[in-house]
Amino acid sequence: MRKATKPKQRAKQTKREGFQAMQACPHCKKRLMPKPAEILALRESRGETQRQMAAKLGIKASHVAYMETGQRRPSGSLVLRMMRLSRSFLR
User: What predicted TM-score, i.e. pTM, was given to this entire model?
Assistant: First the structure.
């Protein structure tokens, strides 16, 4: 007999699948999610510490460190905030 998945688990699976699907624009195929090296390059090009960048983005410095090492991915809203810091972010 198969166990029914909980609604919360289904929501997580759907969210995760949606995240994977939105790595690139479906129309122009341009990459939407920055690579860890690009996040590091953005911060270094601005001459900021992880704490300074985190303060401007409204997150913790540890989250910036995790994104720079590839342990976490930025959310869509965080990518937009990063793009506002630098217009050439995803070139």
Answer: 0.66
